[in-house]
C-alpha cells in the first residue's frame, strides 16, 4: 500500500514556495525558494504589488509598501499561467 | 479441527494481567454471561411508548435522508414505528416483551435506513458497557480470495491464549461458519449504506460490540478456527468479555451553543471501537500521552513545547518519514474532545507536517469515523493553492425544521428557503456551510509537494467530507483500500439537542428515559466543484485508484 502510494507520488510534480521576510519601514525584502514555479505574483492585504518570473532556486524580491500597517503578504506561484502554489505570510 | 482449548475465567485472568494505566480506562472486566445475569432493563411500558413517540417525531419531522432512504433501500421506518406504537398501546405492563426484545426492534428499525448517523442508543445499564474479544482482525486479498488475519492481541492477554494463537494467524472459521460468510452475515446486521461500508463494519464488529449502539452478542463464546503460520488448522474457544467503565463519549455535549453539539459528523460506533482499540492494543506510551493531554490545562502550550515527529495527540495523529523524500501522516479521528479547539488540532497537524520531507505526502484516513466537521474541512487549505469552498448543508423542509431555524439565531440563514418551500414544494432548504469560508482559508497552503490520500470503507462523515474536498479541489489522487468510503453525508444531532432547541414550541420533545438517546442526520451535505450538488450519503467518495490489502501490507504494519 505504502509502496503503491509512493509510486503514484513519484509521478506527480513537486513544488516548493518558501519565503523568508525582512520588513523595513516602507518596504519588504523577500527571499523566495521555489521549485516548479515560473512566475510569482505578490499581494499585500489583497492588493497586487509585484509580478516576477522565477526559476528553481532562490529569488530575491524587494516590495515597496505604501502603508506602515501592512498585515498580510500573499505570494501566488504560477506555472504556465496556472496557479500551482500559494503562501500567506502574516506581517 | 481438534485441540479445542477453553478460555475459562478469562475475564478474571485478564483483569489481573492488564497494566494499571489500561485498567484505569477499561474498568473491571467480566464475562458476557456474568454481565447478562446481572443486567436487566428498567424501561416501563410508558417509557417504551415515549421512546417510540420520540423516534417517530425525530424521523418523520427532521430526518433529512428519509426520502432518499425510503427510495434507495425500500424501507419504511415510520410505518414500522407506528406498528410498534400500536402493539404497545394494545399490551399491558405484565405482558410486554423482555426489554432486550424492545431494543432489538428499535435498533432494527434504525438500522433499516442504513445510516450510521441515525442511531438508537441503548439506555442504562447497557450503554456503559462494551463487549469485546481480545484480538483484532483485518482482511487481506490473496489469489482473489479474502483472508482474515489476526493483527493484534490485547496487551496483557497474550499469556491466556493458546500458544499457537498469536498475531499473524489466519482466522478461517467462526463458530463453524467459513469466516467470509460469517462476516457477510454480521455485515447485514449493520447500517453501512453501501456494500463496502457494510462489509467493513461487519468485520470491525466481529470482535467489538459497544453496547451504547449495539445489542450484546447472542453467543456467549466463539469457537475460532485458525490456521497458524506453519499451516496447522486449530480451534479454540474464546468467551466474550465485557468492560464496565463508560468510554469517554466526548461528542455527547448536548447543551445548545456548544461547538461540539452542532457541528459533528461521526460514525459513533466506529469512534467507540477506535477508542476501545487504543486501550486494548496501543503501546503504553501512547496511553500515557493521551492521559497527559486529557489532563492538560493548555493544549496550546503542549503543542508549542513539542518536538519531533511523536505527536502530542496520539489519538489523532501518527507521523513518520517513509523515505528521504516522502512523509506519512495517519489521522485516526476528527472527533476532538470538547475542551480541544479546532485550531489546536490544526496546529499539531501543521507542526508534524513541517517536519516531514517535502517531495511527497501520504495522508492515511483508514478507520477514521469522522468527528468535528470544521476540524476536517479546515485542514484541506494547508495542502492546496485553491480557495476552499466549504460544503453546503441543507435541512429537510418540514414545519419542525422551519420552527427550529426561526427560533435559533445561528440557524436563521436556513429560514427563508424553508419558508419558501411551503409554496415551492422544495424538499430541502438552500445549503449553507458549517465551516466558515474564513476558517477554511485563513491559513492558506503550507505544504506544496504532491499529496495522496488513502481511504477505506470505514471513513465516514467528516472524513467523507475531507475526502470529497480533497477530490473536489483536485488536491491529489485517492488510493482506496475499498471500493468506496462509508458514505455518511450529514451533520448529526442528538435528541437532547433538538429537545433544548424546541423547548416551548409546538414541537416540544419529551425527555427520554434511563439515559436512552437517539441521533439523527439533521443536515445533509452536498459536494462542490466538479461534483457540485451531489450528495455524499450512500454514494460516498469513489477512490481514483484501488489497492487490495495484501498479507505483506498487514504483516509490515505488525512490524
Provide a descriptive summary of the structure in words.
The complex is a heterodimer of chains A (91) and B (559). Chain A has 91 residues and is mostly beta strands. Chain A has one domain (15-90): Immunoglobulin-like (Sandwich), CATH 2.60.40. Chain A has one helix spanning 2-10; strands at 16-24, 27-35, 39-44, 47-53, 57-64, 72-79, 82-90. In chain A, strand 6 and strand 7 form a beta hairpin. The radius of gyration of chain A is 15 Å and the shape is elongated. With 559 residues, chain B is α+β, with helices and mostly antiparallel strands. Among the domains of chain B are: 5-39 and 128-245, PDZ domain (Pdz3 Domain), CATH 2.30.42.10; 250-390 and 434-489 and 536-558, 2-enoyl-CoA Hydratase, Chain A, domain 1, CATH 3.90.226.10. Chain B contains 21 helices and 23 strands. Chain B has a 6-stranded mixed beta sheet with strand order 13-14-15-19-20-23, with helices on one face. In chain B, strand 14 (327-331), helix 14 and strand 15 form a beta-alpha-beta unit. The longest helix of chain B is centred in the first third of the chain and has 18 residues, at 45-62. The model of chain B is unreliable at 1-8 and 250-255 (pLDDT under 50). Classes of the chains: A mainly beta (91), B alpha+beta (559). The A-B interface holds A 1-2, 4-6, 8-10, 12-17, 74, 76-77, 83-88 and B 322-323, 326, 328, 358-362, 385-386, 443-446, 448-452, 454, 476-477, 479, 481, 545, 547, 549-550, 553, 556.
Amino acid at each position: 500500500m505504502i509502496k503503491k502510494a509512493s509510486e503514484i507520488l513519484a509521478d506527480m510534480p513537486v513544488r516548493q514556495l518558501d519565503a523568508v521576510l525582512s520588513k523595513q519601514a516602507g518596504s519588504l525584502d523577500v527571499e523566495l525558494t521555489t521549485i516548479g514555479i515560473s512566475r510569482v505574483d505578490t499581494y499585500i492585504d489583497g492588493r497586487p504589488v509585484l509580478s516576477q518570473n522565477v526559476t528553481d532556486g532562490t529569488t530575491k524580491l524587494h516590495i515597496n509598501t505604501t502603508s506602515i500597517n501592512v498585515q498580510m503578504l500573499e505570494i501566488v506561484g504560477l506555472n504556465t499561467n496556472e496557479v500551482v502554489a500559494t503562501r500567506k505570510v502574516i506581517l | 479441527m481438534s485441540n479445542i482449548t477453553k478460555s475459562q475465567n478469562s475475564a478474571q485472568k485478564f483483569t489481573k494481567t492488564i497494566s494499571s494505566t489500561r485498567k484505569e480506562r477499561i474498568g473491571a472486566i467480566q464475562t458476557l454471561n456474568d454481565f447478562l445475569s446481572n443486567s436487566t432493563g428498567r424501561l416501563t411500558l410508558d417509557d417504551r411508548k415515549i421512546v417510540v413517540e420520540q423516534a417517530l417525531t425525530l424521523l418523520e419531522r427532521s430526518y433529512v435522508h428519509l426520502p432518499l432512504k425510503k427510495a434507495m433501500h425500500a424501507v419504511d421506518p415510520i410505518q414500522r414505528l407506528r406498528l410498534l406504537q400500536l402493539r404497545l398501546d394494545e399490551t399491558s405492563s405484565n405482558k410486554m416483551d423482555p426489554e432486550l426484545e424492545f431494543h432489538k426492534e428499535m435498533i432494527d428499525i434504525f438500522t433499516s435506513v442504513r445510516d450510521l448517523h441515525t442511531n438508537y442508543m441503548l439506555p442504562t445499564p447497557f450503554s456503559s458497557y462494551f463487549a469485546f474479544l481480545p484480538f483484532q482482525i483485518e482482511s487481506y486479498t490473496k489469489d482473489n480470495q479474502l483472508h482474515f488475519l489476526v493483527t493484534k492481541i490485547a496487551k496483557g492477554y497474550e499469556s491466556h491464549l493458546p500458544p499457537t494463537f498469536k498475531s499473524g494467524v489466519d482466522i478461517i472459521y467462526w463458530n463453524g461458519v467459513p469466516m467470509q460468510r460469517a462476516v457477510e452475515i454480521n455485515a447485514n446486521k449493520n447500517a453501512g449504506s453501501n456494500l463496502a461500508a457494510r462489509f467493513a463494519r461487519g468485520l470491525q464488529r466481529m470482535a467489538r460490540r459497544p453496547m451504547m449502539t449495539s445489542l450484546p452478542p447472542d453467543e456467549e463464546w466463539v469457537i475460532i478456527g485458525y490456521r497458524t503460520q506453519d499451516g496447522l488448522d486449530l480451534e479454540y474457544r474464546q468467551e466474550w468479555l465485557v468492560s464496565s467503565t463508560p468510554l469517554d463519549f466526548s461528542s455527547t455535549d448536548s447543551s445548545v451553543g456548544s461547538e461540539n453539539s452542532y457541528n459533528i459528523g461521526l460514525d459513533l460506533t466506529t469512534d467507540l471501537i477506535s477508542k476501545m482499540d487504543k486501550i486494548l492494543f496501543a503501546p503504553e506510551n501512547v496511553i500515557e500521552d493521551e492521559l497527559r493531554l486529557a489532563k492538560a490545562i493548555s493544549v496550546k502550550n503542549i503543542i508549542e513545547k513539542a518536538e519531533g515527529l511523536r505527536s502530542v495527540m496520539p489519538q489523532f495523529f501518527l507521523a513518520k518519514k517513509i523515505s528521504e523524500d516522502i512523509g506519512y501522516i495517519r489521522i485516526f479521528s476528527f472527533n476532538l474532545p470538547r475542551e480541544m479547539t479546532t485550531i489546536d488540532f490544526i496546529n499539531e497537524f501543521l507542526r508534524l507536517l513541517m517536519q516531514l520531507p517535502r517531495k511527497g505526502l501520504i495522508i492515511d484516513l483508514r478507520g477514521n469515523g469522522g468527528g468535528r466537521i470544521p476540524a476536517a474541512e479546515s485542514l484541506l487549505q494547508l495542502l492546496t493553492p485553491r480557495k476552499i469552498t466549504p460544503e453546503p448543508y441543507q435541512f429537510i423542509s418540514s414545519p419542525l425544521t422551519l420552527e427550529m431555524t426561526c427560533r435559533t439565531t445561528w440557524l436563521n440563514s436556513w429560514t427563508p428557503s424553508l419558508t419558501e418551500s411551503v409554496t415551492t414544494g422544495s424538499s430541502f432548504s438552500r445549503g449553507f456551510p458549517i465551516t466558515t469560508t474564513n476558517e477554511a482559508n485563513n491559513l492558506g497552503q503550507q505544504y506544496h509537494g504532491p499529496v495522496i490520500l488513502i481511504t477505506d470503507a470505514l471513513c465516514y462523515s467528516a472524513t467523507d467530507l475531507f475526502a470529497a474536498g480533497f477530490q473536489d479541489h483536485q488536491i491529489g489522487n485517492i488510493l482506496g483500500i475499498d471500493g468506496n468510503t462509508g458514505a455518511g453525508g450529514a451533520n448529526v444531532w442528538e435528541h437532547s439537542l433538538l429537545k433544548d432547541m424546541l423547548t416551548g414550541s409546538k414541537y416540544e420533545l419529551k425527555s427520554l428515559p434511563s439515559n436512552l438517546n437517539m441521533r439523527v442526520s439533521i443536515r445533509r451535505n452536498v459536494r462542490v466543484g466538479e461534483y457540485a450538488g451531489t450528495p455524499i450519503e450512500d454514494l460516498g467518495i469513489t477512490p481514483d485508484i484501488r489497492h487490495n490489502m495484501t498479507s505483506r501490507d498487514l504483516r509490515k504494519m505488525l512490524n
